[in-house]
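Budget justification aside, the reviewers requested a transparent look at the raw inputs and outputs of the sequence design task funded under Objective 1. We therefore reproduce one unedited record. The lines immediately below are the structure tokens for a 192-residue chain.
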């Protein structure tokens, strides 16, 4: 076998795909906050206490349970059905997110003739019992840039669906402004 030097371009492709996927997941969690506010019928309230409570909760499953508990008390049957389906999809996707959240990037050079080239994946850390022992296992079990982009796409689509549902709940009211500076600017503009 020839000597091997990892490709900086391939590393960057993997890093960007991983960052995009995780960033998109964070957008889903932020979008779910808008459903929480609507379920609590807090559309015209100061959102700072609700935001503090919601985002203090580290567990995504608990956040979904909070929204669902409020929705069961305030949504009609049709909206509750829509929310329940979205919450189930979120739980299913959270499993995938949880799987990649603590993985580390590795490059596995080919070890046998005929293997097309190095594999760049995020997988379990080197010391973990599930760390791939070889190129073939890394290729089949790791998450390469392509698989990470697939997750990003699925999470983007879910985020759009959650956003559409939030807009139905909010009606003509503006969605909550999470940035305090933006809220101040809006109030100042209204006063003029």
């Amino acid at each position: 076998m020839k000597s091997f030097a990892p490709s900086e371009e391939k590393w960057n492709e993997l890093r960007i795909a991983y960052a995009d996927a995780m960033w998109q997941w964070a957008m889903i969690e932020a979008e779910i906050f808008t459903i929480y506010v609507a379920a609590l019928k807090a559309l015209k309230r100061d959102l700072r206490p609700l935001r503090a409570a919601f985002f203090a909760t580290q567990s995504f499953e608990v956040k979904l349970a909070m929204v669902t508990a409020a929705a069961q008390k305030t949504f009609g049957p049709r909206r509750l059905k829509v929310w329940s389906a979205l919450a189930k999809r979120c739980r299913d996707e959270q499993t995938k997110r949880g799987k990649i959240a603590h993985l580390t990037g590795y490059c596995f050079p080919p070890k046998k003739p005929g293997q097309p080239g190095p594999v760049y994946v995020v997988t379990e850390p080197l010391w973990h019992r599930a760390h791939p022992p070889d190129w073939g296992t890394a290729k089949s079990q790791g998450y390469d840039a392509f698989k990470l982009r697939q997750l990003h796409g699925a999470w983007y689509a879910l985020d759009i669906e959650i956003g559409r549902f939030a807009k139905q709940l909010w009606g003509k009211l503006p969605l909550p402004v999470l940035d305090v500076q933006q809220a101040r600017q809006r109030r100042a503009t209204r006063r003029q």
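The beta strands are 104-108, 119-123. The longest helix spans residues 8-39. Computational costs for records of this kind are itemized in the attached budget.
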